[in-house]
Design goal:
This is ParB/RepB/Spo0J family partition protein. It comes from Rubellimicrobium aerolatum. InterPro entries: Chromosome_partition/occlusion, ParB/Sulfiredoxin_sf, ParB_N. There is one protein chain. By secondary structure, the protein is of the alpha/beta class. Helix content is 48%, strand content 9%. The protein contains 28 helices and twelve strands. The strands form three sheets. Strands 1-5-3-4-2 form a five-stranded mixed sheet. The protein has a four-stranded mixed sheet with strand order 9-11-12-10, sandwiched between helices. A hairpin with a 4-residue loop joins β7 and β8. α4 runs antiparallel to α7, α20 crosses α23 and α25 packs parallel to α27. The chain is extended and about 105 Å long.
Length: 610
């Protein structure tokens, strides 16, 4: 049988009633939605590609190529146009079998860049999105995303077509509305393994994601009403707030307004705000000279017994949601509320947490209100009040000098770890320093000294092996033929040389200037928690018990009077450290920890690293 045998004669017109799906057709399972979409396409545009089949002994025709079209045509028999159809007939069963196999296996998906251009051309001619989706048998969402790519500058699409960019990398460019910036970033990423997130940061380094706490708190509508610009990230289904100055201004204004509304509604003497996502006790102590607490309520003997029983179960992580609700209600009753007299001398500090929720720290007495609060009997007199004109003693550092140095080394190691993935940045930094542009400052330890990144305890701290494993050296460094060794080294190729240079430069990074360090961290995406996890040995056992109590409450959103907080506070310091180590090892394995709390734990850093 030669190739000419497989060429069909001119198509014959066959009544649809005489057509059926041949057993030779390999595509037996076809999604119903696909058939429905194709039927609509044929109804709108006609049957573009004919069916192919084999006539059997009864005169009917079994379709061997075009099974999906046959199923779609079955849905169109209300239209007289499709009662009789053109079919190419095979001369024999062997030819029909080859046709069936060939059509099934020769289908080739178009390159994404070609698909993007084709969709874009149709849209430019006025074809709407649903019609394009029907014509190609794809979803409208698929077409919408391809059309977003169609708006990219031609050099980006060409880079996609040449496989210089992946589809995901090309999609990252859709967030930019500045062609000059787009082309500049394209030139920088060509030939390098930049991730999609890195490209987006290069295109819009100042944009704030819609999931940011400020954006969540302010809301899209209020931000736009204030003149902010939105840049959509269609492929991430997320807004980008492109006017961070507007967002910050609206965020602060809304927070101040809500703080004042809270003051009026609850009757506090004053209200203040913090723009941070967490207010540590050190900040509260700096702001306020004292603090009042709710006047406890009274529980009946039966209620008190029930409260204690549920609290024990909660501490053992054995309480269900209904039980927790009962415990919360009893705890609230026992905790009581602030009296009008307390509120007349105290205020509330308001902030927005990392999830975008407003939080309030009530009952704070300012230094200027302390005397009045003491005279009114709502605040106990301080036995440590300094005499007039006396200088307040300096606060004792919460971290030891050794621990602070360890944390500095950890931060330095994390920065080096991140810079391993940005060799171009390292080379730029090297040129910046050795070109004399930094004066007496330095960013790289290019001298013979060693840049320390190993803390006094190595638990919970793992760097890339390239930073901790010495490079291969000569077997006999004293009798080495340097010229011969250098020729052999160069024969390894530029990639090997570049790898050695990257490792060496990364291990020498020791930036002194804080602003420059922050810039490097931003571009290299330094992530301290990627190389360091706090443990009882490397951190928790080296700070005070009060610091551990505060951290436990902060991570789990606990009031000081909450049973889980009071039970933790009664533990020995060693037990507290062990509990926190267990919590940080796998937050989601601890019963009762929410997703928001697990995220907070995963991102938490101590004072010396944050």
């Amino acid at each position: 049988m030669n190739a000419q045998t497989f060429i069909a004669e001119a198509p014959e017109l066959v009544a649809f009633a005489d057509l059926y799906l041949s057993p030779l057709n390999p595509r037996r399972l076809v999604p119903e939605a696909s058939v429905t979409a194709l039927a609509q396409n044929i109804r709108d545009l006609g049957l573009i590609q004919n069916l192919a089949g084999l006539r059997d002994a009864t005169g009917r025709v079994g379709i061997v190529a075009g099974g999906r079209r046959l199923r779609a045509l079955a849905l169109l028999q209300d239209d007289p146009r499709f009662h009789v159809l053109p079919v190419r007939l095979a001369p024999d069963e062997a030819t029909a079998a080859v046709w069936a196999s060939s059509e099934n296996h020769q289908r080739e998906q178009p390159h994404p860049a070609d698909e993007v251009r084709e969709y874009g051309a149709l849209a430019a001619r006025g074809v709407d999105l649903p019609a394009i989706a029907i014509a190609f048998g794809v979803t409208e969402r698929h077409v919408q995303r391809r059309l977003a790519l169609a708006g990219l500058p031609e050099p980006v699409l060409q880079a996609l077509r040449e496989d210089v960019l992946s589809l995901g990398q090309a999609a990252a460019f859709t967030i930019s509305d500045d062609e000059a910036v787009t082309l500049d970033v394209l030139a920088r990423v060509r030939g390098h393994a930049y991730g999609e997130a890195q490209i987006k940061r290069m295109l819009k380094p100042d944009s704030v994601r819609g999931s940011d706490r400020r954006a969540v708190f302010v809301g899209r509508d209020a931000y736009l009403a204030a003149g902010g610009r939105i840049g959509g990230d269609l492929f991430a289904d997320e807004d980008l707030f492109d006017s961070p100055d507007v967002l910050d201004r609206v965020f602060e204004a809304k927070l101040r307004a809500e703080a004042e509304a809270l003051r009026v509604a609850q009757g506090w003497r004053w209200a203040a705000i913090s723009l941070e996502d967490y207010v540590p006790y050190a900040e509260i102590e700096r702001l306020a000279a004292g603090r009042v607490y709710p006047v406890p309520g009274e529980l009946t003997e039966e209620e008190q017994e029930r409260h204690d029983e549920l609290a024990e179960l909660a501490n053992a992580d054995m309480l269900d949601e209904d039980g927790l609700a009962v415990l919360d209600a009893l705890s609230a009753l026992a905790e009581g509320d602030y009296t009008p007299e307390q509120k007349a001398h105290a205020g509330v500090l308001v902030h927005v947490d990392r999830t975008g929720e407003r939080r309030a720290t009530p009952g704070l007495v300012r230094p200027e209100d302390r005397v009045g609060a003491e005279e009114a009997g709502v605040l106990a007199p301080s036995s440590h009040r300094p005499s007039p004109g006396a200088t307040a003693p300096a606060a004792k550092p919460s971290l030891s000098a050794t621990l602070r140095e360890d944390l500095r080394r950890i931060a330095r190691g994390a920065r080096q770890n991140a810079l391993l993935e940005t060799p171009d940045l390292l080379l730029d930094l090297l040129a910046f320093q050795i070109g004399g542009r930094m004066g007496f400052h330095r960013a790289l330890g290019v001298k013979a000294d060693t840049v320390e990144t190993q803390p006094s305890t190595g638990t919970g701290y793992v760097l890339d092996a390239r930073l901790t494993t010495p490079p291969d050296g000569p077997k006999d460094p004293f009798r080495l033929d340097l010229a011969k060794a250098f020729r052999a080294y160069r024969k390894q190729g530029p990639e090997a040389v570049r790898a050695d240079l990257t490792r060496a430069l990364a291990s020498l990074v020791d930036v002194e200037d804080e602003a420059l360090g922050q810039l490097l961290d931003k571009e290299a995406r330094t992530a301290i928690r990627a190389v360091w996890t706090p443990t009882a040995e490397n951190f928790f056992g080296r700070v005070s018990g009060a610091t551990l109590d505060e951290l436990w409450r902060h991570l789990l959103d606990l009031a000081p009077e909450h049973p889980t907080a009071t039970t933790f506070a009664r533990l020995k310091k060693r037990e507290k450290a062990e509990r926190l180590e267990h919590l940080f090892a796998d937050p989601r394995a601890v019963r009762g920890v929410t997703e928001a709390q697990a995220t907070r734990i995963a991102k938490w850093l101590p004072e010396g690293l944050a």
